[in-house]
Amino acid sequence: MEKFDVVIVGGGLGGLLCGNILSREGKKVCIIEKNEKLGGCIQSFSKNKSIFNTGLNYTESLAEGEVLYKYFKYFQIIDKIKIRQLDIDAFEKISFASDTTEYPYAQGHDNFVEKLCQYFPKEKANLNKYITNLERVCNCFPFYNLDNSNSIKIDEKDLSTSVYQYLNFTTQDAKLQQVLGGLNSLYAGVKEKTPLYVHALINYSFIKSSWRFVDGSSQLAERIADVVRANGGVIMRSAEVKSFDGSTNNIDHVKLTDGQYIYADTYISNLHPSTTFNMINADLSKKAYKIRINSLQNTMGMFSLYIVLKKNKFQYLNFNHHYFSDWNVWTNDYNEKCWPEHYMLYTPAISASSQFATGIVALTYMKYDEVKKWENSYINMRGEEYLDFKRRKAEKLIDLISLKFPNLREQIETYYTATPLSYRDYTGTPDGSSYGILKDFNNPYATIITPKTKFSNLFLTGQNLNMHGILGVSISAALTSAEIIGREYLFKKLCDI
């Protein structure tokens, strides 16, 4: 019977990165992924010769010397991925229905402030204070700042401060408050709950520098997997874990749906925490802890529109566009009757051309309740009523996009769609949540999930713990791996890159 040092359940980004780190440290690693494709939320796919991503296809802080660059260099993939830097002076554009202005997010502290000051000339001091404070919050997070001591602790106030309140405190200009909150779709923030640190880790990291994957984000998963295999790691695809089994203090093995048992000394779950603990026998897991995890609210899901464009008809956009039909960027005011009230739109980067786009991805919020009637069905088996529902939604979203891009309809060849059910089935996230557990500044420690569990040899990783995005998941993987190979040891290795 083969036994591994570490079994990792879930071949999403967090699981793959843990496999990368641990296999290079001499651990005998096995990654188990239920789908044929690796990557989870960073999967990409091709339709009508157009490449699309299941999630966002851009990432942050990848300029030489910046934090994600150091992580990617440590992961041995920095020279193996194809990336393109987004527009320096406007990597994001924020717009509102009642205002013709497109407010830019520029890369770099000074550039960000300078470009927004063209629209808010009296706010320079406030904008500088805003960026400086975001930097301070980020640098206090474990394994974010790889130049300073690993002993820096985040201020309790930053965990229990609302981003909504912080933006109101930063500036009295209501319009600027909304613009600074305009990247909300990168973390699905809720006015009454989302903490400042979630906003800071996203906004500051992208303002440092922003990059788009060329020819799809799946390349990231494959290059990480290459390193795992090169170091003797085993990756099982189309293999689904049914349960974690063992004793009250220790996991002994995982059981696959085909009946196989896989044994290891240590286990890491890249699944949503509630999914993980629901796969553990009720007699083994702490009932109170399981109830707490299952009771946590998840972030809202997304409706995704994948548009295949006619050849050489739509200009490639080297930025992302966030559009709001009202002066409100928060998800808690979501109104199904007025849907859609927002979208984030981007054109995937392809190596064949930087002038014209072959496709468009548009994302907007969607409540799981809207698709709940089909929750007992599976992909491609939901029936004609579901397909009609998606078509109606797609047409409404195209109508909204056409207000900003008037000639869009005549440039469309065809389109495809996905709902929170699609995300649920592909990524295993309860309710098809876009960013996992919703963080709550009112009770921050209830929604912060540590890598350690009540089982001595079971650890958690991935975006569901504390941080979102590729950088957030990279840090999460490092923190999880550090529990196994030593925190100071791994931190020093990362700092020496």
Explain how this protein is built.
The protein has 17 helices and 19 strands. Strands 1, 2, 10, 11, 12, 13 and 19 form a 7-stranded mixed β-sheet that branches. Strands 8-7-15-16-17-14-18 form a 7-stranded mixed β-sheet. The protein is globular. The protein is α/β, with parallel strands linked by helices. Helix 1 (13-24) packs parallel to helix 9 (218-230).
Keywords:
497 residues; alpha/beta; 7-stranded mixed β-sheet; 34% helix; 21% strand; globular
**Total E-strand runs:** 19
- The termini sit apart by 38 Å
| Helix content percent band | 25-40%
Rg, please?
Answer: 22 Å
Strand content: 15-25%
Low-confidence stretches: none
Mean pLDDT: 93
Q: Number of DSSP helices?
A: 17
Strand count, sense and barrel status of the largest sheet are: 7 strands, mixed
Structural class: alpha/beta
- Which shape, going by the Cα principal axes? globular
